[in-house]
Amino acid sequence: MASRLVFSVCWFVLLLSSVCGGRRLRGESTALTLESVRKFLTREEDSIVFSLIERAKYPRNAPAYDPSYLGRATKFHALSLVDLFVRETEAVQAKDGRYQNPVEIPFFPKHMTLTSVPPYNFPNELHAAAASVNVSNTIWRKYFDEWLPQITSQGDDGNYAPTAAADLVCLQALSRRIHYGRYVAEAKYREAPQDYNTAIRAKDRDALMKLLTFESQEDAVKRRVEEKAKVFGQDVTLGKRVDDSSNATNYKVDPVVVYRLYGDWVIPMTKMVQVEYLLRRLD
Amino acid sequence: MASRLVFSVCWFVLLLSSVCGGRRLRGESTALTLESVRKFLTREEDSIVFSLIERAKYPRNAPAYDPSYLGRATKFHALSLVDLFVRETEAVQAKDGRYQNPVEIPFFPKHMTLTSVPPYNFPNELHAAAASVNVSNTIWRKYFDEWLPQITSQGDDGNYAPTAAADLVCLQALSRRIHYGRYVAEAKYREAPQDYNTAIRAKDRDALMKLLTFESQEDAVKRRVEEKAKVFGQDVTLGKRVDDSSNATNYKVDPVVVYRLYGDWVIPMTKMVQVEYLLRRLD
């Protein structure tokens, strides 16, 4: 218990130190630009669509999410296999330094072990405020409750560990994308701080949200991820390419669901992260 | 040390029991057919190509493979970060039951922990011989020494844990595909046992290899995975689809490398697994 507390404290100190250089770097020139942000987000779309397709390879596999499944077999009565799997896998990845990079945020920071690898000098591109912007709990809940049922078919094939591993890849990709809102906001702020300062000082969320909203851009992103779900989720056969008129059932994950995943959730959540970050940007 | 020995023995018993039903089932009708095998292998191609593209997102990241990198920081002087990462991640996945399914084979069986999930009744489709057909060491060596340098660019971005996680997904997909040769051989054997019995009794590897070789089929598979590398590895933009005449540098992993990965390695290794399985099929 005591050692767990020490780990948690050390983890928080590590997290804080990994982003707190932002204050020092404010105004300095780093690699973070609107162009680098756009490139990162576009590449992450591929990772997200791949991860959803790989999760959809397995059926729902409900026992992996049911705490009573492990209740008889372990001492962790209130935890599901996926809960335990993610906790323990994140602990291995933390030990190997995954969360030294502030782009990566764990779902179970309280259960982190200390990293055992030498420190790596990741660029400090964020304001210290970034450490307190965290929507992991919401991502976890929405992924499992709302989106997972829409990308998987009913059924149980017993592959619970590969299923949990596929879920973790989805969760990590979605979390990285959504929490990257901190970088998006920082890049936008650096581009034109005067546009944001008044709204930040007035703590005006609506004004900030308005400043951050570009509907035509969002529409293009939604249509592009839908297209990616078609291209990556088709059955590739020699001498034949995907056809827009194809029936949706040919795709491994429904492109319309991916369109809505972005439109109803990923984009709004990323913007919420941007607003929360900007509200603390002048602290 | 003693507990590790107990774990190893238990793991071996578990592995053996998970496949030894094959002897009982010989001749019984199960879901394993040439059609189901073909379907599985085709779907695995997508997983393999996705995993290579996701690994190629990170540069080489040489420190992850260099035992001296961890030498100063841990007691495991002779192990690299990737060695440790895969061992510990496999242990988590073993505990959650991954290797109850004989389709999945760990790279570090000696370091497995016992599963803590209830047993799942996976179909026993293989002869007991399957338990002794294992080319994991070769897969590990060839992946890191020969193929990884061809799918990654030089460089070091410090993301060693995500890199190791991406390597593990590649390794698991490649291992599942190559070791699926046991199922391929079983399906072929059930289709026409008389075609194989003479060569098996004579322990004639060359004759078996000849019986298992269909060059036109292999050629189609190679061309299809090359096509998948183009389709899945393109930069998808709205209103534009992949074009065969595109320059290879547009793809996230070189399609020609994927063609050779299959032609020079994955297909021959799968056939080797088939031969080794068949040689034991009448034991």
TrEMBL record, chains A, B:
Its EC number is 5.4.99.5. Residues 1-21 form the signal peptide. It is an enzyme of class 5 (isomerase). Pfam families: CM_2. Keywords: Amino-acid biosynthesis, Aromatic amino acid biosynthesis, Isomerase, Signal. It catalyses: chorismate = prephenate. One of its GO terms (molecular function) is chorismate mutase activity. InterPro entries: Chorismate_II_sf (IPR036263), Chorismate_mutase_AroQ_euk (IPR008238), CM_AroQ_sf_eucaryotic (IPR037039), CM_II_prokaryot (IPR002701). Coiled coil: none annotated. GO terms for cellular component: cytoplasm. One of its GO terms (biological process) is chorismate metabolic process. The keyword Isomerase applies. Residues 164-274 form the Chorismate mutase domain. Pathway: Metabolic intermediate biosynthesis; prephenate biosynthesis; prephenate from chorismate: step 1/1. This is Chorismate mutase. It comes from Musa balbisiana.
